[in-house]
Structures are given as structure tokens and as C-alpha cells.
Amino acid sequence: MRPVYLVSGGVSKFAKARPDVTFQPMVKEAYDYALKDLGLEFRQAAELVDGTVASYFSDHFMRQLKAGSMVQDYLGLTPKPSKRIEAGGATGGVAFQSGWEAVASGRFDICVVYGWETMSRVNTWKGNEFIALASDVSFDYPVGGFYSGYYAMMVVRHMKEFGTSVEQMALVSVKNHNNAFHNPYAQKRMNIRIEDVRASEMVAWPLTMLDICVMSDGAAVTILASEEGLNKLEKATGRRPKPAKVTGVGGGIDAMRMADRPHGEVILLPHEKPEDYKGLKYPGVHSFRAGRMASKTAYQMAGITNPLEELDFIELHDAYTSSEIQTYEDMGLCRYGEGGKFVEAGKPFMPNLDYGYRFPEQGKIPVNPSGGLIACGHPVGATGLMQAVFALWQLQGSIGKHFGSNQLQVKNARRGAIHSHAGTGTYVVVSILEKGF
Amino acid sequence: MEEQEKKRVKLPETDEGTVLFNVPFPKDLKDLKGMAPIIIRQPYHIDYIHSYGQDSPFFAGLANGKLLGTRCGPCKHTYGTPRLHCMYCGNECDWIELPKEGAVHTFTICHFGSEEFLKETPFVLILVEWPGVDTLFLSRLVGVDSLQPSLDWVGMKVRAQFKRLSKFKPTDVYFVPA
Ligand SMILES: [Zn+2]
Hints:
- The complex is a heterodimer of chains A (437) and B (178).
- Chain A contains 17 helices and 13 strands.
- By secondary structure, chain A is α+β, with helices and mostly antiparallel strands.
- In chain A, the strands form three sheets. Chain A has a nine-stranded mixed β-sheet with strand order 3-2-4-7-1-8-13-12-11, with helices on both faces.
- In chain B, strand 1 and strand 2 (78-79) form a beta hairpin.
- The two termini of chain B are 38 Å apart.
- Chain A binds chain B through residues 19-20, 63, 123, 125-126, 128-129, 132, 137-140, 142-146, 148-149, 152-154, 156-157, 159-160, 199, 201-206, 255, 257-263, 285, and chain B through 4, 15, 37, 39, 42, 44, 50, 52, 55, 79-81, 83, 87, 105-118, 120, 123, 125-127, 134-140, 149, 151, 154, 169-171.
- Zinc ion binds next to loops of chain B.
């Protein structure tokens, strides 16, 4: 394997609906941005790019099969090789790692990973139906298939097991919405409080509208390169890219049916001991074993032994406020069961922003400085790539340039993690990015 | 609160759209760049010929008032939602009848849902557990007040009831407080 760098990226502004364009120009918006930031012309890119990965989740949402090749030709990248990745909610994260594989293996020197989702072409409840088809259609879907309901059941068990409260969950929503206030790419930019979250409409008890991410139309693009790829880009543009180095990739999978998850022993991270979890049945439905597996393998590769101390920020898959709390634990930022207290202490908030609350340990490790899925939106195939782009900008120190404000720039960010998650924890991937210049 | 109530008063939105035979067209083609998108309705309907395959005995069981799971002979792993092959040793499992009475492992109340189930909201989803059974079973719970949910529902004893007119769906069984 050889080192792989994330050299540039772009994101279309996520929106509830983009009826003004079909998906191809939406991806081109993100692609053009990534090229421009690199100083590369469209024609130069068509020459230098060795191949691509297309990241999109559902064929149902657009009723268009083989959409990947339609994007490829719109970007002028035919007849270069490409493949499509689908991994539910984690599609973007898995596609990013697939691009990494293509470069690490030596197959490609420069690989474009482009992703999008167009979710507005059906109504919200039909969209929920399509998403719920990502559960067992013999045993789960017909009972009342609804992802918010599935996650609600998972967090009810978390509440029962560990005493996690709805107010702690609401704090995640407060954090992510308030962060997004400073992110022009975000779909929902609001200053809210715990009471607003609890007063918004109940969707699946105890999750309200403001505990849940929204559906979006949007696209994101990342460009990955080897050392040789960096040299080629420098030669073509006359300037050295400021990349992030991908130092760890990890993944995990769990049983599709929540009912099938085991009740066994915790998979330990290096800084944990078996005594930490006496009597805890794991993962049950309260935790994501695939998230722990993905973290463990990514940390191992990057040489991380205590993530809370060794990471500067995390962009993680907060489709639900509850799953952000559960993910703090999977990623080892705190012990299993302590996720609620972790957010209550203020640890995942930005250190510099005023959220209208006093926290004893505000800003220990900013989680979702961008506003995450809850505020930015979740156009599935684009989401994991959006995280990679925002992480690159953090590591470049270029948030101010791209967001028009430095409020969300994590100071001296040298190492960050991105985390992408699908279907009640069925697919989870974690990638570690480090400042690479 | 009053303001919120006010906001909710609105005519229902539907997706039928309308029949349109033509649109205005500019004299100068340059003006086309400013044109609003044309949005049309594309209906799509499919009837799948879905086979339950190896899981079919489970649905036959429901039609006959029996809730079936499976058990692995060699490792004794017992599945509350049937799997023909054991996840741990790969052996073919045997069918077993599960107790009618179990307990709520976790639950939620869906106030919204997928389009197919929207008309049934609010409904209660539960995962059922049984002592000695290693995995759970997803079902509906009826006979509780869906407007008064409580964490105390976790652990509640529940009993399986079966639909008389079987539809050969997992909803042929549902649970009520025991
Ligand atoms: Zn077995």
C-alpha cells in the first residue's frame, strides 16, 4: 500500500429540493469547485484523472438506473473507468474508502469520488418508505418500516440501560444547529435551545423533528491522489496542493435485523479494560458494534490509542441526536453509557461559540463543527464525502476561505476523523485524516 | 403554543399535479436560461412476487396460531426471529415454538411513518424478548395508551395474539399487555 492524499473537494449547497437541475449539473457544481480550489482546468482534469468512484444510495428516489455513467459523461470523464458504491447511509464514507483503495493499490494516481442524492422527487413519506426498504422486507419492513422508529427503539434501550435523557439528546441538536449557523453550506441554520427541540413535533417517541436529520438534494466531490498524483497536479497547476493524508481506514458491519444483534461482550479499544463493562450486554440494540469495529480498525491503522486525546475534531454521522450520543461511545470518546454526560459536559461543542449554556468542559473535542447531518442535510450519497471535504478544509485551516467566516475553524487542527453510518448500524466506516503538508 | 397551533391550520397538499398541454415560450432563446423547471408526475407501481423461501414455515405458523423461532442443534443458539442457518456455526437450525408470553425489550411510538403506514399512526413498535431466547422479535403492541409512553414499558409482560384472517405477513401476530 502507498500513501493516499485528499487533495481537494467541493460541496453543492444542500437544499430540500433542487428542481432547477437534474443530478448531473448538481454534481458538476461540486466538481467545478474542487477543480477551481486546486487550480486545475476542466480539460486538464479529464486528462489527469485515472478513474472515479460514483457514490449514490437509492435507485428508487430517481427511478434512474446507471446514473453513475450519466454523471461521468457530464463531468467529461468518459471513457475513464468507474464503479458505483452503495452502502445505505454510509454510501459516501464507503465510496471515499473505495477511492482510497484505488490509489493505495497503485491502480490510480488520481481518483475522483463523486456523490449525490436527489431525494426531493418523491414526497417525504414515500422517501421514508424507500429508506425503510433498507430493512428486512420479510420480517421488519411490513411491521411498520420507519427508520426514525428503529432508531427510537435503539435509544429507548440506551435510556433504560444508562439513564440517557431527552435533554441530553436535545443538546446535540442545539450544538449542531448552532454550529451550522456559521456554515453557508448547511440546509438548516438556526439558533435553538433544548426547549425548541422538545417542543417540535413528535416523530417517533422520544425523537422529535429537531432530533432527526432531513432529506436533501445535494452533491459532494473529493479528489484523492498518490505522491505521484500530487506531483502531476503540481506540474499541471504550477502549485503544490495542500492535502490531507489518509492515515487510517476502518469498517464494520452488523446484522441487518436489529433483533438479531447479540448480547455479548464489548469489543475493547486500547484505552479500555474489561472491568469497565462488567454485566453490560453488548451491543444489544443500544450500541453499534459495527461503529466500534470501524473505529477500532481505523485507530489501529493510524496508531491512535486514545481518540479523545489524539483527535482534534470529528465529523460523524448524526442522522439522529441519539445516534450521535451512541457514536461518542462507539468511537471511544467516552465509555459506553457515558455519551449523555459527555455532551452535557460540553465536550463535543466548539470552544469559541456561545450556545446560551454554561458547560464545565466546553470544546474538549469538537464533534460536527459543520453542523453535521442534522443541520447540513443528508443527501445520502453525498453526505460522507461532504464530511471529508469539511475535514480537509479544517486541516488546511481554510474554513474561513470556504465558509466566509472563521467561527467554525478548529484551531491548529492536525488530525480528524470522519464517520459514516448506515441502517441501524449495519455499515459503518471511519477514516482518519491528517494534515499532509 | 397558540402560535404553533395556528401554523398547523392548512389545506392538505397532494401530489396529483395537473394536466398541462403547453407552456409559454420566449421569442429570444437566450431567455430560456431563466425558465422555471418543468415538473411532471411519473407514476410507478410494481407487484412483486415475493417468496419467503426458507422462512415460509414461520408464516404458516402464524396462520395456525403459532409463533415460531429456530434453534441450532450443535450450539443451542435460539433465534426469536427465525434464521434457517445459525449465525455462529453455520449449521441448519430446527424450528421451535416460542412462548406466547414475552416481555418488551424496547419500544417506540410512531407518530409519522412510511407512506404505506401513515394512516395507521400512531402505532407502537416493540422488540420482544424471551428468557432463554438469544435474539429478539419485532412486532406491534396494542392496548397501551400511545399518548402516555413511559420507560417503564420496558420489561412489560406481553402476550402474542394472532389475526384470524391471515395475511401471511409478520403482522399476523401482534402483542397485547399480558
Ligand atoms: Zn450454532
